[in-house]
Amino acid sequence: MTPAEEVARERLTDRRERLAELAEEQTEGDLVELLRRVDQAIGRLDTGAWGLCTVCHVAIEPDLLETDPTVSVCFECLSSDERHALERDLESAARVQRALLPARRLTHDGWEVAWLWEPKGAVSGDHVDLLVPERPGDPLHLILGDVAGKGVAASLLQTHLHALFRALTTPEVGLAELLERTNRLFGGATASASYATLVAARLTDDGALKVANAGHPRPLLADRRGVRPVEGSGLPLGLFPGATYTGHRLELDPGDVVLLYTDGWTEAAKDGEEYGVGRAAAALRQAARLPLGELLAFCRDDMEHFLDGDARPDDLTLVAVRRAV
């Protein structure tokens, strides 16, 4: 059984148990019909037919299966009405997700922040948020995460993460405790195969930047000593409810830059070779003194130049933070 099939079986079995409880006393209706579809999908897993279109017998698009593991027809074999309904749903989901994004540029208490967010498809599993304090002197919080998977399913979990951090983040709660609380709630509300990597940062008016990492690619720090990764990491969110995390403090001088990113940047590959952290660090070294918007564009364009026309395989998010004063 492939990893995708194992994940699908776990999701389908979990869904079946929940539906069976709800439909226990029903003999008709939407719940019973959905339970029937889940049973059929499990049967296709048992016979090796899961993931193949029942009409044309070719592989169903991964995004469709990621969105709904019970689907049995590929996009090309959907009826015109079904296809248009799916497209409208994706457009609506994309509008909702984009409405949750913060302002693209922010200046606050001596900090400059800018970000670049480019989904691979209509929606993204990448999560970026800036939580601007309501009270003067309180810290600014920055969140960058990446939910495992792609498509609508990942975007739904991304929205769930957005709500959790908005609800849990306060100046009184340390970053390590914030990740621990989020991990427990995120893991308790999602399927066991779901997880997210994430880095959280707290920016204070004295030039300190505190970072806590949950299995995410390490940010890059560009200062007078050069470019280097920011130390520290922990387990991704959603895997183990008792996971603990550690916060790290950086002291930034004016002009210093921290670049946070998702693996859609460093893991983009050409002919089996990844763009990699080395090329990423070199790009940041060249662009570190540029205005943040130009810095982000330079880093993205350097990766695109490396790909030399090949399609980027994943969502891409870059967030740049500079100490301005």
Overview features:
Phosphatase 2c, domain 1; 5-stranded antiparallel sheet; alpha+beta; 6-stranded antiparallel sheet; 325 residues; Four Helix Bundle (Hemerythrin (Met), subunit A); 2 domains; globular; single chain
Overview of the molecule:
The structure is a single chain. This protein has 325 residues and is an alpha+beta fold. It has two domains: 3-78, DksA, coiled-coil domain (Four Helix Bundle (Hemerythrin (Met), subunit A), Up-down Bundle), CATH 1.20.120; 102-323, PPM-type phosphatase domain (Phosphatase 2c, domain 1, 4-Layer Sandwich), CATH 3.60.40. It is 40% helix and 22% strand. The chain has helices at residues 3-22, 30-47, 62-67, 80-99, 151-168, 175-189, 263-266, 276-287, 292-307; strands at residues 105-108, 111-118, 126-131, 140-147, 196-203, 208-214, 220-223, 226-229, 247-251, 257-261, 269-270, 273-274, 316-323. A hairpin with a 2-residue loop joins strand 11 (269-270) and strand 12 (273-274). Helix 1 (3-22) runs antiparallel to helix 2 (30-47) and helix 8 (276-287) runs antiparallel to helix 9. The radius of gyration is 22 Å and the shape is globular.
